[in-house]
Design goal:
single chain; 2 domains
């Protein structure tokens, strides 16, 4: 089986592929409204802080400069597109470093070309990454996982150097990278466990006596002080939220775990999902130090979210780091079995199907051209918010000459970012007792406040009234349906609401 096209080098083929995907992302950046998470983290950039309620600060800090220069939809996507390019490069590097330059017999000696492989393994890792539906979509949408994945690949390259040379320079780099990972996402704590596993499995007990290790710990600790400072100033709100987020349910349900895994199967493509689990479960992959190194970074994340999903279904991007890191192992395994007659049709089938789905998903972001029944379009949650914000502000001006007298409200925290981004700099408040980042930005609405409530059709209507943290009465002002191809994608309802009732004290809250 020939896995290396003859007319191009692996590097050039990789550059062409990543360039095409980046051009697609740039085109969509100027033509597609922001999704909920994208708008949320763009607001982070507009309101920089030491840290934030729901995440460490890296995802916001990276958006500060784009938001300062040009606070528009397209500029919110420049950083994630750049991170995706870097992600492809580092994945190529990790694949080459582990499976092309290092022998399975002495992987941590001076690198030597492995005659059984070639640099096309790097290209196929990049190709597999870009054929993965959710990872390709994340290539233009800012999430905390984007910088975390980039930092982790750089960290793995640094660990390889430490296994080989154990010099002070690489210990210092390691400390910086661990600090950056911790500033990106709280689940970066799994990287610490992975590093301990590397020391244990590779029998590097002498690291404990190296001043470089303790210097790395000091550097990482100093780098996370912004998170500690913000939490100390806000009664440890972020830490308490994360603990409750992971342990809020006391009942573990197998159905929840199965649903999470099925969602990952669809999001990461069947081939990557099935082969990825095979890579994780096959004992021989732990006898070869090269795939084992990656698996030591995969297993803590996979175990954390696989078990946690029994309490609360995990979103597919939460485990993006795991599926990213199994890609080089899958590619190396496929190379070793390239003479199998069934493998070539499987690879062709995967790239035709997965590539088509990637292009289809991106085309639907540009325009939802596939016909769906009214209110059944899968993009309804991220569609039409610029128009909804425009209508809401127009209704405000028709009812009052001062928007502060009639602030904007939503009935669910998950849609707040949409309206807050497109109605900025107006504050947006949320009915209900749940604490969110918006409480820290905009404060809580005063008792007795009137408001203009915006409710998309997929939220419960009519809105709740006569309950704490809700209004006493809401009168519908307008209903607006947005259609494509003669089918309604989303309907927004606008309410003039009266007498906001104060929330219950925290100790009296009831579900």
């Amino acid at each position: 089986m020939n896995l290396s096209p003859p007319l191009l080098s692996a590097q050039r083929a990789s550059i062409i592929l990543v360039s095409l995907m980046s051009l697609l992302h740039l085109f969509l950046a100027f033509n597609v409204e922001l999704g909920g998470d994208e708008a949320h983290y763009a607001l982070y950039g507009l309101m920089p802080d030491w840290s934030y309620f729901d995440h460490p600060p890296m995802v916001g800090w990276l958006q500060i400069l784009p938001m300062w220069l040009a606070p528009y939809d397209w500029s919110a996507r420049l950083v994630p597109i750049g991170l995706y390019i870097l992600l492809n490069y580092l994945l190529y590097r990790v694949t080459i470093e582990l499976f092309c330059l290092r022998s399975p017999d002495s992987p941590w000696q001076s690198p030597q070309p492995d005659t059984n492989t070639n640099h096309w393994l790097g290209f196929w890792s990049v190709a597999l990454l870009n054929s993965c539906l959710i990872l390709a979509l994340m290539g233009m949408a800012m999430l905390p996982d984007n910088p975390l994945m980039v930092i982790t690949l750089a960290l793995i390259l640094t660990v390889i150097k430490l296994l080989e040379t154990n010099t002070l320079k690489y210990w210092m780099i390691l400390g910086v990278l661990v600090g950056l990972a911790a500033l990106s996402k709280y689940t970066a704590v799994t990287l610490v466990l992975s590093l301990l596993l590397v020391m244990l499995v590779e029998k590097r007990w002498n690291w404990l006596t190296q001043k470089g290790l303790w210097l790395a710990i000091l550097i990482a600790t100093l780098m996370i002080t912004p998170v500690l400072y913000w939490n100390a100033q806000h009664e440890w709100a972020s830490f308490l939220y994360q603990i409750d987020h992971g342990t809020g349910s006391t009942v573990w349900e197998l159905d929840s775990l199965v649903r999470t895994q099925l969602t990952q199967l669809a999001s990461y493509t069947p081939m990557i999902f099935i082969l990825g689990w095979w890579m994780m479960l096959k004992p021989t992959h732990y006898r070869d130090a090269r795939p084992r190194l990656l698996l030591l970074f995969v297993l803590p994340v996979t175990t954390l979210f696989a078990w946690g999903s029994g309490y609360e279904e995990s979103l597919p991007h939460w485990v993006s780091l795991s599926w990213l890191l199994v890609i080089p192992i899958i590619v190396h395994w496929a190379w070793q079995h390239r003479d199998k007659k069934w493998l070539k049709p499987l690879i062709y089938f995967h790239f035709i199907l997965a590539g088509s789905l990637v292009l289809l998903a991106h085309s639907l972001l540009y325009k939802p051209w596939i016909p769906f029944d009214d209110h059944k379009n899968p993009i309804q949650g991220d569609y039409g918010w610029p128009q909804a914000a425009k209508t809401a502000m127009k209704l405000q001006s028709s009812l009052t000459d001062n928007p502060k007298k009639l602030p904007l409200f939503v009935s669910n925290w998950s849609v707040t970012s949409h309206l807050a981004w497109y109605a900025r700099p107006q504050p947006v408040f949320i009915t209900g007792n749940r604490q969110t980042q918006y409480d820290f930005w905009f404060g809580l609405p005063q008792a007795g406040t009137e408001g203009l409530l915006v409710v998309p059709h997929y939220e419960k209507t009519p809105p709740k009234t006569q309950k704490p943290a809700h209004f006493e009465r809401c009168d519908r002002l307008k209903e607006e349906s947005l259609s494509v191809n003669d089918a309604i994608v989303v309907t927004y309802r606008y309410y003039h609401c009266f007498n906001f009732l104060p929330p219950l004290p925290a100790e009296d809250e009831r579900p």
